[in-house]
Specification:
The structure is a homodimer of 261-residue chains. In chain A, 31% of the residues lie in helices and 22% in strands. The first copy, chain A, has seven helices and 13 strands. In chain A, strand 1 and strand 2 form a beta hairpin. In chain A, helix 1 runs antiparallel to helix 2 and helix 5 runs parallel beside helix 6. The longest helix of chain A has 23 residues. Chains A and B meet through strand 9 and strand 10 of A and strand 9 and strand 10 of B.
């Protein structure tokens, strides 16, 4: 299965790079009158995933951001976000990723997760019980507290007031606009915390965004919570939404819990 | 001169990529007992710049973050930051750049500026009076207000309280940790605003960080201010520090000025 995930990731990376290059050059790629560049690139990447899977003998059900749920009468579900961080991609901010996860029904039973940085080609991945990796190297989260703390946050008009107080805590703050990769950077010890807290929460994360990165972070020694600080779980569907507070070291939680508005 | 800047950028990009790869692989690169990985990679990149320049017949004085001022009895000064965003580089956050600018004495007389994204290889550049470019394509700033506004900010414990209120304004917020590239992304219309406001300001930007990106943004139609909203100017030295508020469209200023603590 890991080989299949890599195959999909390579195909998506190649396709997205070629389409982005042609868009940069101002080529008309047939983005329909009712389409947006965002939707166009998401659809193109999703089609690549579906095309690779269609050629394989082994079938999976699929849950994907654009196509929804595809029932192939299989036991397991492949949960994917073909491009997480589409707004970065479209604006020329070089930080966006493909997210692929495999499980039976919900976040807590994801058994394989892969996040591919579509700009650098780096791959974060994990198999349940076997640790987490960046390319071929094992990764681990960092201890907290930390003199040189670094958090990544979702900021802007839809962030809760708490968020903008949490942003005052770390020695350095980031906001990179791609949840899956930001959670992987908690897994690798680059960040101590990833803090995403929208209001209203109807706009917040879907399982497609975070299924892979949640497993990767847990396998690297971190944990993922919702905005009431319960350990995060959610079913494989597109209706469910959640806020995401991800930490490398559980000790960071006390600091976050004590932030008032 | 543009050809020389590209030559330096290519050499720095190659060197940094190779050293980062070897560090990722855990190789001992001879980082002395008293050195940090940050200082090591900054020094290595600077040495590449100095080596390229030493081979050239035409001489410039040099102002660089690590080496300081090098007087070659020349008319013009090459102002450089070999790696802006070193903390990103060291932690595996793929967003850092080389900044090169040429001028006589201060920000206002910079005549050529180049910012190279050392991860993607993209190059932002401008010659005074001739517009700004991303690789070979001309770039322009975006009009404000904007339904889909995006600001990039410096957040964290050293940011002013105003900063964390400005972070609540845009539809989307980013904090990418590399001022030169973030200002170039205002120039290209990705961001409406780049807002960097430290306290105390003794830790804020030096001219080496922003000499190139200030010209690039001005040539793309934007403007750069200090934290009292005066048009930014500063001499070529390493003592002077400034906060930086950069806008693509001057109309964004009224919004920023009205933010209270």
């Amino acid at each position: 299965m890991k080989a299949l995930f890599y195959e999909i990731a390579n195909e998506v990376e190649n396709t997205v790079k070629s389409k982005m290059k042609r868009m940069d050059l101002g080529e008309d790629l047939g983005i329909g009158a009712d389409g947006t560049p965002t939707k166009f690139i998401d659809d193109a990447a999703e089609q690549v995933c579906l095309d690779v899977l269609a050629k394989k003998e082994k079938k999976f059900n699929i849950l994907s951001e654009e196509a929804g749920f595809i029932d192939n009468n299989a036991e397991k579900i492949l949960v994917m976000d073909p491009i997480d961080g589409t707004h970065n991609a479209i604006r020329g901010i070089p930080f966006y990723a493909l997210s692929l996860a495999l499980g039976k029904s919900r976040l807590s039973n994801v058994e394989l997760g892969l996040v591919r940085n579509l700009v650098t080609g780096d791959t974060f991945w994990a198999e349940k019980g076997s640790g987490a990796f960046l390319n071929e190297s094992p990764i681990k989260t960092k201890q907290y507290p930390d003199m040189d703390s670094m958090f990544s946050l979702y900021i802007g008009e839809r962030a809760t007031p708490q968020t903008h107080n949490v942003a005052k805590i770390p020695r350095r703050g980031r906001a990179l606009g791609c949840a899956s990769l930001e959670m992987c950077l908690v897994a690798s010890g680059a960040f101590d915390v990833y803090y995403q807290n929208y209001s209203p929460s109807k706009y917040s994360m879907r399982v497609t965004d975070i299924a892979a990165s949640t497993l990767i972070l847990r396998e690297a020694g971190g944990e993922v919570f919702n905005d009431t600080y319960d350990i995060l779980d959610m079913p494989f569907d597109l209706k469910s939404r959640t806020n995401v507070i991800a930490v490398g070291d559980i000790r960071a939680l006390e600091i976050l819990r004590n932030v008032v508005v």
